[in-house]
Write a structure and sequence with these properties.
Largest sheet: 4 strands, antiparallel
CATH class of the largest domain: Mainly Alpha
Strand content: 15-25%
Shape: elongated
Strand order of the largest sheet: 1-6-7-5
Helix content: 25-40%
Number of strands: 10
GO molecular function, one term: class I DNA-(apurinic or apyrimidinic site) endonuclease activity
Number of domains: 2
Domain Formamidopyrimidine-DNA glycosylase catalytic: 2-94
Protein name: Endonuclease
GO biological process, one term: base-excision repair
Distance between the termini: 29 Å
CATH topology of the largest domain: Helicase, Ruva Protein, domain 3
Radius of gyration: 20 Å
EC number: 3.2.2.-, 4.2.99.18
CATH architecture of the largest domain: Orthogonal Bundle
Length: 243
């Protein structure tokens, strides 16, 4: 599943279509009426966490690539796309994704202060949300899209390891200074992720995700499905403290 930084990369790649009119469109599962898009002009592209947003004057198409979604820019595969947008000088195709038509103003739909890649990110806002759920585990807090929109399993694992926090730590028990470190690292690593992804070096810099041994203590990583989502956590029992 693409994480927030990967959606930012997608947003950057499609800027050529801002201000362009859709001359043909298709949706292969009936999730939206593709006819609504024909002769409509794209006013911009936005992202909120893992959501990719195609903005038109009176509505927005929300695309979630889920676990196996892909896209093609100015090309296509033999498989019919979930969403096809044709322009006079190019095309956009999305596959195996979830689509939703949004007619409300985006500021009413999205909390931009929760987006890890947004310049509107608000640390105090995140702390307040976590304090409201004292029984929340650290792994669940990071994966909660209403608190850290855009964090996925890679970022979760890397941030917890780099801050020496056990994934099953209770949020309420994490010291305030350590909590601020966790949040700061979540934001900083997300932008490191972005730059490494662009360079094709992301996997080379992983310290915990899908690694077999702790680089600090040289002992085997524990691998368990943790938290509400039951997503895999790679952690070291020696250096990651369980608060």
């Amino acid at each position: 599943m693409p994480e927030g930084p990967s959606i930012v990369i997608l947003k950057e790649k499609v800027q050529q279509f801002t201000g362009k009119k859709v001359i043909a469109a298709g949706c292969n599962n009936g999730a939206l009426d593709a006819g609504l898009l024909i002769n409509k002009t794209i006013t911009g592209f936005k992202s909120w966490g893992k959501h990719f947003l195609i903005c038109f004057p009176k509505f927005t198409i929300r695309i979630h690539l889920m676990m196996f979604g892909t896209y093609r820019i100015n090309t296509h595969t033999e498989k019919p796309p979930r969403l096809h947008l044709q322009f006079a000088d190019g095309e956009l195709n999305f596959y195996a994704c979830q689509l939703q038509l949004i007619t409300e103003p985006l500021n009413k739909v999205y909390d931009w202060k929760a987006d890890i890649m947004s310049d509107k990110w608000d640390t105090k806002h995140a702390i307040k949300k976590m304090k409201a759920e004292p029984a929340l585990l650290a792994c669940d807090a990071l994966m909660n899209q209403q608190i850290f929109s855009g964090v996925g399993n890679i970022i979760k694992n890397e941030v917890l390891f780099r801050t020496c926090i056990h994934p099953e730590s209770l949020v309420a028990a994490i010291p305030p200074k350590k909590m601020k470190e966790l949040i700061a690292k979540a934001i900083n690593y997300s932008f490191e992720f972005l730059e490494q992804k662009k360079k094709g070096t992301l996997k080379k810099h992983w310290q915990a995700y899908h690694k077999k041994e702790c680089p600090r203590n040289h002992v085997p990583f524990m691998v368990e499905d943790t938290g509400r989502s039951r997503r895999a956590s790679f952690y070291c029992e020696l250096c990651q403290i369980k608060y």
